[in-house]
Amino acid sequence: MNHHVIGFIGAGNMARSLAGGLVANGWRKQDLILSDPDLQQRKAVTETLGLVSYENNDEVATRADVIVLAIKPQLLRGIAAGIAARVQKTRPLVVSIAAGVRVDDLQRWLGGGLAIVRVMPNTAALIGSGAAGLFANEFATQSQRDEAESILRAVGVTVWLEAESLMDVVTAVSGSGPAYFFLVMEELERAALKHGLDPATARLLTLETAYGAAKMALEGGEEPVQLRRRVTSPGGTTERAVQVLEEGHIGRLFNDAVTAAVERARELAEILGKQ
Question: Which of 21, 35, 165, 227 has a CA 20 to 30 Å removed from the CA of 193?
Answer without folding.
Answer: 227
